[in-house]
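User: Here's a chain of 216 residues. Predict its fold as tokens.
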Amino acid sequence: MTRNTRTILAVVCLALAGLACQALPAGGAGQLPFSDDFSSEQWGTGSDADSSIAYADNALQMILFKKNHFVYSTLNDESYQNLHIEVTAINNDTDSTTAFGIICHQQSGTNDFYYVAVTPAGEFAIVKSAEGQSDVFLTNDNQWAASEAIVKEAPSYRVGADCGNGTVTLYVDGQQIASVSDASYTSGGIALFVWSGENAATTNVSFDDFLMTALP
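Assistant: Prediction complete.
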């Protein structure tokens, strides 16, 4: 599955022209630990012809109408380091090639960041994004990889990431899937994302029960 070309829709109120966007202050989100059950609107939302990010059923729902499209929503403009992050990604009958997960160490105003990605097909990747360059998959020789620890077509996935101390680690449902060493970015913002597959017929993922704590 090759999806190295991405279209970015930055839902941080640095939005593309014509995108309806809001980013509400996240009370206390700069302090750790921080949890969010998405019962109050603290994350960036917006919609256009290609995607919709909105609160629905006490969760943050991302629906994509375009294939091979990448959207993300940020919590705030805080910079964090040495984090453990967890969130539940709810599979709303989304296409198996859809990827979803967590962005960390996003550099202010850029598409420079790490992201950990999981698909309902049981694939995963830890990736480094750099402005104006092709993404670098830091796992599996720059390719998507499959893991038997990731249940295929599960109703939901508990996705976790460690970002700090020179490493990025991916967890799914409490199990460590992969870990890489890279110190290109040592702090930055956090976000949640969804990426539609090249042949995705339906891309619909909701996020709930967000937790962010400090690494030891």
